Amino acid sequence: MNAEEQDINTFTKWANSHLKETDYVNKDGEHSVDFNDGDCFENGLALIHLYQKISGYQFPKYNKNPKIEIQKVENLQLVLSQIQLFLDELKIKVQYGAQQIHQGDKKQLLGLTFVLISRFVIADGESESMKEMKAELLQWCRDNTENYDNVDIQDFTHSFCDGLAFNALIHNFFGDEEVEYSKLDAQNRLENLKLATSTAEGLGIDNLIDEATLASGKDISERSVITYVALYKQLFKGMADDRVQQKLNRSVKSFQFSAGGLVDSLQKQIDTFNNADVSEATNNEATEAQAALAKYKETERSVFSKQGAALQIEWYQLQAERAKYDADPYVPGDDDVALAQVSEKISELREAEAGYMKRIMERIFSFNEAVATFDASCAKYTEWAEAELGKESPDAESSQKQFDALSAEYQALQNDNLSVRSSIDFTQVSLLNQVVAYQAGADLSEDLQEAWQLADSAKEGVDFSEQETQDEEPVEQQETQDEEPVEQQES
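Given the sequence above, the corresponding structure tokens read:
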């Protein structure tokens, strides 16, 4: 096939792949056209149905059963006016005449069809010229085959002759599941091309090329190859866009999972702190709570801080990823967790933690006050008791009542490990109460007798250990004196 024959073959297949899904029927009752027949668009009906299918635009009115030439030309002019808008956007100074198309001018017919293909298949982004569209398509091919051996796409002719480029594109998106690229040989051109076209057909891409002509590498139609390659991009890029969107959605879902979990954990800890009541806690319980809070600061709080930092990194990575794929920045919805909410919860947790610590310390300080109150009461009692001892008849009953009250307080302090904080030797307080009782006429208790004995000994300066030694020495001397006469008598 020469270049024109290749274009006729490619464009016919492309047009029919769309017309078969429309209401158009030719004179033989088929949903197709044949570009070998120059008058395939002569009444405008096939062109109108084709344009409506590929563009989504619906002509409000046209001649559905044209009989005369003017009606057929009017139909053609409807489509050509829409096409001309596209050509004007690209600043292409080519005009297609309804009369020429009606008369079957093949050059005009093929050129017009390629404009439709360029507009609705090749065009991507904001290309300002046909040259740019072609360059973008070529770059897309290069980007998706750059890691494949024996593939170096420089044009839309000879770079595709061995079939490896087509197979590489398929493999790039589907892997070995569709094409085992590593097993292909560049020398098997026709086999490679047939493998690519048959595989692509299975994926939904109509075969628009003649494999034998392309494999020969002679008189290749660039427009034919471009049209076929554009179908690859149209399908694969759409799939790639879906994959990108799925990837972005997974990133958002992952962030929401992490953020939601962290917020729940923070709230749980906040509630724990806020609901912790230490107003009736014992000294032991308050001390244990203080120790537990200190341990929390070293463990859980550290974990929360790390999770918060990791979440910030995940947020920035998510936004950077979206920017990479030209997606809009992620903005959490009303039911989603925003990074600001996490920061607010962390601040709320710090406040709850500080409040809990304050309550613990206030409870601990209250115990110090209790000890101070006890010490003051003991000092007051000591002063009163010493004054009573200066009287002939001390008030033993009042002394005992005061002592019993102090003893109960002291027992409570002991039970809560608070007595060690007291500066009072409660044994002395107890002895003082017994002295008051004794002076008032009570029997001398053993504790008081022992205390007085020790006191008297201290006053006299007597060392009982030395006294015992002196008491023992005469006995030893006596024994010696008793033995000496016996020895002398024996002598």
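The radius of gyration is 53 Å. Try to locate this feature in the token string yourself.
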